[in-house]
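Posting for a labmate who doesn't have an account.
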Amino acid sequence: MSKYVITYDVGTTGVKTCLIEIGDTMRILASDTAGYGLYVDDETGVKGGAEQDADEWWSAMCSTTRNVFNKCVGVTKDQVEGISFCSAMQGLVLVDKAGNCIRRPMTYMDQRAGDELKKGIAHGVQIAGAEVTKLLKYLRYTGAVSSSVKDPIWKYRWVREHEPENFKKVYKWLDVKEYLICRLTGEFVMTQDSAFGTLLYDTRKGHEGWCKPICDMVGVDMKHLPEIKKCTDKVGEVTAKAAEELGLAQGTAVYGGGGDASLIGVGAGAVEIGDAHIYSGTSGWVGTVVPEQMVDTGAMMAAIVGANPETFNYFGELETSNKCVGWVKDHLALDEIGVFLKRYGNATDSLEQVEFNMYDYLEEVIDTIPAGSNGVIFTPWLHGNRCPFEDPNAAGMFFNIRLNVGKTELIRAVVEGICFHMRWMLERQELKTTKYQKSKTVRFCGGGALGETTCQILADILQRDVVVVESPQNIGAVGAAACIAVGMGAIPSIFDVKKLIPVKTTYKPNPANKAVYDRNFKVFKNLYKANKENFAILNG
């Protein structure tokens, strides 16, 4: 018998709300999208700031929830058996005892806390940006190290140092979806994967939970840390107030869900040990399912806690992935896209439909340019970079522009640059994961997987099969539905999700493009080494 659930994929730029039927497969019956603001630098009052408004998250949830019921009139709110989330991770949402935000949440992109990082861990004799004794202590307890300025520990300490009056009001430290769970249910909880994302979570067998030695070392008050739950646990029920605002039934079960780094691979069907997936949304990453913790401090990669407590997700992140495509839209192709929409679309189309139309246009353009973009190379580091090198000063660039280069080469080069960076991270991961891989096939998902040409470019650059499932832009929501399915007993475990998510298309690499892509990839990797000092001069 089918079960109906609602899931929220809460990203950096908007929320995607999906009404999903769980049966022999996971089927999206209706979806709706709403955007919200991202406030950076001057808008936050500090250099490196990146904040959002929690009320905007909630307003987007309310409007999209009502819209999915309007789009699917055959399902009522009383038939919905569960609600869950997939969300961006490593945010800092500080709330009081009533669950109200004390200040605007900081996103994972926020990098204001450079001084706090230096005082806390980036001093003395260092390995991979961390003082050696603290590094060893971290690895002993957590298996990962908080050595990035974007990690939430340092944002927490920034608030303590710079906003003492706000800090006095703090009752709990939450992440994005945990705040929304609190607003839905009144419960202060955090799922295991989000807890790991704070880098305060003890991963040792038999010791799983908040780690007092690490909290003491980095100056975090453990009273601020909420109760930890599994991603598949029922964590509460929708309150009367939340039900009225959202258009849901009071008492509907709410499940923990997970962060995007945990659930997007699940939604893509990459759940078995050795399975690899590549995600290209606003940010992007490469993840491989592994049975043990592992870390590559030199590349800022670690095996993170995910939705399945029996496995880890070995993870490397690109901070601005499809965000680069959005930049192309706004700064290189806005006029052309407008013409395209008038011809093939509708100016009043929904945000989701406009996104599809934009991809249609970009696909049409880049397919006219040969592999390698006539020698033009783009670096997709529009907000610094995290893996396989950590450098907040790194930036995007076009390299090797000549008189015969036009806008179309630049647009294709952006797509290729994103794919080159994914290859770089995948190859670095495979130094540790090859022994677990049963095949070289990679699952590709996110908005970047909407275009056939983009998928083929990725297959050609990787020189391996790339598979795409139905609705690749919605797999975060599908991963959240998988948590509900396990939690309510519809399937035994996360391992069983793959049979509910069939592959739609497989892209085979074109051997004829291997030489030009191998050549350009070599140059791509050299560009950071050659310009590291220049980035520091201009952006440091």
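Reply:
Got it, the structure tokens are right above this. The first helix runs from residue 54 to 71.
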